[in-house]
Amino acid sequence: MDSGTEPRRVLVIKLGAFGDFILAQTAFSAIRRHHAADHLTLLTLPSLAPLARLSGLFDEVLEDPRERSFGAYRRVRRQLRAGRFDRVYDLQAQRRTDRYWWLLAPGPWPEWSGTAWGASHRDRYPGRRKVPATERYIRQLAPFGIVPDAVPDLSWLDADIGGFGIAAPYALLIPGCSPGRPEKRWPVERYGELACALATRGITPVVLGTAIEADLARVIAAACPQAVDLTSRTSVPEIAGLARRAWGAVGNDTGPTHLVAAVGCPTLGLFCDASIPIQANGPRMVVHHRLSFADMDVAGVLAAMDALPPNR
């Protein structure tokens, strides 16, 4: 914790997608510990704000307007100046949030950790975007004596899953990914084959995803009638609850995969070179990587799932 008689006002900036938010949890927790007696605020996307509030890590959560209009930047400027922050950790560290540093003109400026030119603690080095996000956070926070844990603590995230009526053992299948990155998706037909292999063993396949993965779930269910389709039926806490009690999980490089791994579910992450650098977290997550998904077969995935560390 920083010294001083008065609590400091500290801001963390993290926008980005759901998976990026989950990968930032170790950094959030470490910053909270370091500033235990300070007022800690998070600036994030509106879609992520409820989850941030649920975590209890922040005293205040502000919502970024996301737009790139003059009016949106003016709203951000008002929030930043009204916060009277003593220090800012810009974990997003992209051009958009670099501009937030300059929105404080004519000053005064707080201590600022990020990639903005002129920041007091500029975190910029060759290859910064070629290393996993968790490694970037370790390097960025080191000058402040802040050390993120090796794995995230999401003990606060859980839910009753009895309403789904799924008997153990079951395995979570996460066949989707960002709509703009289909190359990061293991073919859904192979997920169907994997579901059949699991069902033959008496393990119920449970498909997770949002409404945009509904077509993928239908393909899997057509191949394996025993599969349970939960696409668009689960909240974030319910996904965590399912993961805590699952036999295991397998998924592409996408937010729900990072979430189920982060809560401790034995998770096999399927990666090809479209996902370099590979982002992975969780105490029981294993990376299954091939240069191309054409080289990744069902037998190899099933064998890798069998070798996962068991769930508690």
Automatic annotation (TrEMBL):
A Pfam family matched in the record: Glyco_transf_9
PANTHER family xrefs: LIPOPOLYSACCHARIDE 1,2-N-ACETYLGLUCOSAMINETRANSFERASE-RELATED, TETRAACYLDISACCHARIDE 4'-KINASE-RELATED
The organism of origin for this protein: Azospirillum brasilense
Gene3D superfamilies: Glycogen Phosphorylase B (3.40.50.2000)
InterPro entries cross-referenced by the UniProt entry: Glyco_trans_9, LPS_LOS_Heptosyltrfase
One of the GO biological process terms: lipopolysaccharide core region biosynthetic process
Record's keyword annotation contains Disulfide bond: no
Assigned keywords, A-Z: Glycosyltransferase, Transferase
Gene Ontology, cellular component aspect: cytosol
GO-annotated molecular function: ADP-heptose-lipopolysaccharide heptosyltransferase activity
Official protein name in the record: Heptosyltransferase
Record-linked CDD domains: GT9_LPS_heptosyltransferase
